[in-house]
């Protein structure tokens, strides 16, 4: 696993030795960031939130590609140790790491985020719970976009507060691009 592009291009990332963390594949990350590079809001200068961060690979890729602020949220101790190592190895001291349950974020301590990526364990129903916590919260900027990674055949029923903007499949992964319904499409 490595950083694909940007200032840390080609740098290798650590991953936990156990099987509880399933990092987003390089291929899927490359496709995701290709979409984000041409989307709205722009990744360049965005505030990026990575929920269920695992290894931190997605958030660190956003940092490498020019996100203005990156916050990683993880609660698993082994994953946190790996994320701290990856931040240190990349020299990404500006990346924030919060040890917190992504389904119960509480109040945000800073400015809201433009782009939110979440990659909960497949088939866990944690995505729906995390989305419920984001609606009406101070974590989301008014024009925020949320990307949810699911297993390719996993279903996620979106509540009426969310609007599906796009959906893409990459091997075993599927990305849902959504926004708060009040924003429209």
Mind sketching the topology for me?
Layout: H1 26-37, E1 47-51, H2 57-64, E2 69-74, H3 77-90, E3 96-99, E4 113-118, H4 126-134, E5 140-151, E6 162-170, E7 173-180
Parallel strand pairs: 1-2, 1-4, 2-3, 4-5
Antiparallel strand pairs: 5-7, 6-7
What's this model, at a glance?
It is built from four helices and seven strands. The chain has helices spanning 26-37, 57-64, 77-90, 126-134, and strands at residues 47-51, 69-74, 96-99, 113-118, 140-151, 162-170, 173-180. It is globular and about 40 Å long.
Descriptive terms for the model:
globular; 7 strands; alpha/beta; 4 helices; 185 residues; Rossmann fold
What does this structure look like?
The protein is α/β, with parallel strands linked by helices and 185 residues long. It has one domain: Rossmann fold. The chain has helices at residues 26-37, 57-64, 77-90, 126-134, and strands spanning 47-51, 69-74, 96-99, 113-118, 140-151, 162-170, 173-180. Strands 3-2-1-4-5-7-6 form a seven-stranded mixed β-sheet, with helices on both faces. Strand 4 (113-118), helix 4 (126-134) and strand 5 form a beta-alpha-beta unit. The model has no long low-confidence stretch (mean pLDDT 90).
